[in-house]
Amino acid sequence: MQVAKKSGIGMDGSIASINGDTADSVKLDSPYETVRQLAACNAVVVFSMSGCCMCTVAKRLLFGLGVGPVIIELDEHSAGPDIQAVLYELCADGQKPVPAVFVGGKFLGGVETLMACHINGSLVPLLKDAGALWL
User: Fold this and answer.
1) What sequence ranges are listed for the domain Glutaredoxin (predicted)?
2) Sheet strands (E) in 23-124
3) Among 67, 77, 86, 135, which residue's beta carbon has the most beta carbons within 10 A?
4) pTM for the full model?
């Protein structure tokens, strides 16, 4: 059995792979690996809290565009606090870690970044490139 070292977070928001191993062969015993695998294996992932109004805004925007993101409700997940700590590391100063949106395996940001991308027209091309939209 292989033991994974703690993965790193790239400057571009991507979560670095470990020693060239595929996600299938790495044991998911760290929250970094959990986040990395979820982001790498799904076109769009939203880390959310079930009672958060901004999380609801992010999810409704994506659903409204026709995207079916994988949604992880951190307050209902056994590793929620550990995953939230990983998300804190991804956020720039002053940003809240939840909701956290990953598109195409890369960290896009929170609701502010998601809305800004939608308003400036860059969100739909990102979603198309990630395979989340086909139109």
Assistant:
1) 44-107
2) 44-48, 70-73, 100-103, 106-109
3) 86
4) 0.78
